Amino acid sequence: MKAKINNFEVDLSKPIDISIPLTNTDENPIAWYIEKPVIEPVVFGDWIGKVSEGKSSTNFNNIFFNPHGHGTHTECLGHITRDFYSINQCLKQFFFLVELISVRPETIDGDLVITKNQIEKALMGKTTEAIVIRTIPNLKTKKHLKYSNTNPPYLAEDAARFICESGIQHLLIDLPSVDKEHDEGKLLAHKAFWNVTDVNNLNSDARLNCTITEMIYVADEIMDGGYLLNLQIASFENDASPSKPILYQIQ
Fold it and tell me: What is the residue-averaged pLDDT of the chain?
């Protein structure tokens, strides 16, 4: 099925999924010092909510997970503010023009950092509603990594501010966080992207409708360039939700 959006034609029958599935196996990626997700059948006495156990006509599982630490997730500025803001209330549109770029983080003071110059150079002056950042090297192990205490690459504060000032509303990245793992709680890139100056008293020009999506995976065969993004979330009243970002080629 084809559709026209902003004078661009896209084939909706050919989605490109850049999310990482959430599982209860050791293949699941993990960040922030937690254990893997738990997916298990409900048990009431002798009754087990699992058809293969022969005691239920349905599979009836409980799922315990953390959206920030267990896979692809989309978050709003409520992730860092004292007051409660929900991703379900902040994200009200779900289709955006997006630019996919690939960046090899630079070594700065022993860290791997994505810089403003790299983002600016990769965008080449293009304007877009959303940006997907694929880091190089783009190993398939990103889908299964255990990130805790590994000091993964992150986004420099001025790079996040450049993205903000460029009018980009949605940032997607294949890392567990846009900020450094151990940063003394500064969260400089988060604050710069959302234009938050005081987490205890939110400034009037903070970007309530903007989101950050972390822990995606963009396969090598997906070329850099412009796409249509469908940013799908579950309707959680929480600062973040597991998400399923989908790209569509623009024809």
Answer: 96
Match 């993004």 to its residue by tokens. Answer: 229
Flag whether pLDDT at 101 surpasses 90: yes
Residue 32: band (very low, low, confident or very high) from pLDDT cuts 50, 70, 90: very high
| pLDDT tens-digit series, residues 192-238 | 999 999 999 999 999 999 999 999 999 999 999 999 999 999 999 99
- Strand pairing class (111-114; 154-155): parallel
Residue 226's closest CA among 116, 128, 148? 128
Residue 6 phi, psi dihedral angles, 5° rounding: 50, 40
- Nearest-angstrom CA–CA distance, 163 and 167: 7
Q: What is the DSSP letter of 150?
A: S
And the tokens for 194?
Answer: 């959302």
**DSSP-assigned states of every residue in 53-112:** GTS-SS--EEEE--TTTSS-EEE-GGGT-SS---HHHH----EEEEEEEEE-PEEETTEE
Token pair recorded at residue 203: 């400034």
Helix (H, G, I), strand (E, B) or coil at 242: strand
Are 193 and 208 a contacting pair, CB within 8 Å? no
Compute the distance between CA of residue 226 and CA of residue 66 in angstroms, rounded to an integer: 31
Residues 6+ apart with CB under 8 A from 65: 22, 37, 38, 71, 242
